[in-house]
Amino acid sequence: MNLLNEYVESEPENGYSTGLLIEFAKLHENCCERTLMIGHFTGSCWLVSKDGERVLLTHHKKLERWLQLGGHADGDSDLAQVALREAEEESGLTDLIVEPGIFDLERHLIPARGKDPEHYHHDVRFVVHSTGSEEYIVSDESHALAWRNISELVDDVEAEESIRRMARKWLKRKK
User: What integer pLDDT is reported at residue 16 of this predicted model?
Assistant: First the structure.
């Protein structure tokens, strides 16, 4: 909750999303459990290359879209560590470092699938830096992984809006 409050101060233009996530956390003690069927917190990462010019994206099997790496908290309220764990599991990369502060927030609807009803992911995103080999391994959760040039993502109309937003934020931060 402290990280969300700090994020509000540093990113006031994203106050609406932050407010939704803060309210959700206040209302649901089990907000990090995927068993909370109306929605739950997830941890994701903006996994950048050593040179800071590229980001690793996954072509997600279930959602059939190019997205950032990430996943369910499964009860872990340390969402920065969730993002780091998911980055390692989904890419096979080691020598990764997670920044402690929130980089981005997104609340999005996940369609019903099997016995899981339609629900919200309250996604808290962190920057993760690659410091070692950038040779990834595609996990069972992905069709593919790809290093994408961040500056090209900004104007890529086929990219998700949240990916373009994070690309803009990253490039603004690098200036």
Answer: 58
pTM, to two decimals: 0.91
Find where tokens 């509000």 sit.
8
Scanning 92-160, the segments in alpha helix (DSSP H) are 150-153
Residues in the chain: 175
Tokens 């560590």 belong to residue: 81
Rounded to the nearest angstrom, the gap between the alpha carbon of residue 18 and the centroid of all alpha carbons in its chain is 14
Cβ within 8 Å of residue 54, ≥6 positions away: 48, 147, 148, 149, 150
Please name the amino acid found at residue 91.
Answer: S
Q: Is residue 127 within 8 Å of 29, Cβ to Cβ? A: no
Which domains does the chain show, CATH number per domain? Answer: 2-174 (3.90.79.10)
Distance CA 71, CA 133 (A): 23
Residue 31, SS3? coil
Write down the mean pLDDT value for the chain. 91
Q: What distance lies between CA 144 and its chain's CA centroid? A: 17
Distance (Å, rounded) from C-alpha 154 to C-alpha 151?
Answer: 6
